[in-house]
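Below is how a single chain appears once it has passed through the pipeline. First comes the sequence as given, then the structure the pipeline wrote out for it. We keep one example in the README because the format questions we get most often are answered faster by looking than by reading.
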Amino acid sequence: MRQATKALTAGAILAVIGLLLVAAPTADARPTTSQSAWYWTPGGCKSELQSHGVELGDGRTFNVAKAYCVGLHNHCWLKGNAHLYKVFVAVVRSYDGVVREFQLTVVGHHSWRGTKMKSLGHMSPAEFTSSFGTAAWSVASVENQGGCLDIHP
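Resulting structure:
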């Protein structure tokens, strides 16, 4: 598995993240509950994951050593110069080296739910940073070019 992970190129990583972005559903213009009104910055998303970890649907948990979050422009609220997002593509590395990718939807001030989670294998901290740091920056740049649809409640 380690060799397969090392074989991932930046192009392949961008393609995987791009597929998640294309498959993301569009947001409702008006959330129906007060909890739907929470939006995070990409830095806030990263902080939540690295500070509180992840709990899987079956109750298992893992701590996040490093995370990258890319907000989706079609789930965005432009507040001044800040882009706040309701939905992110997140890529995380746990302390044991397992790398996972998923779609994160903010549901409260410090709560979220994840979907479409998949394991991408194991990586060292340096491999993770070199593989996903640049890829996350590239995808975020493309998403920001799409503008913010300003869908806040």
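The first strand starts at residue 54 and ends at 55.

See the next section for the split statistics.
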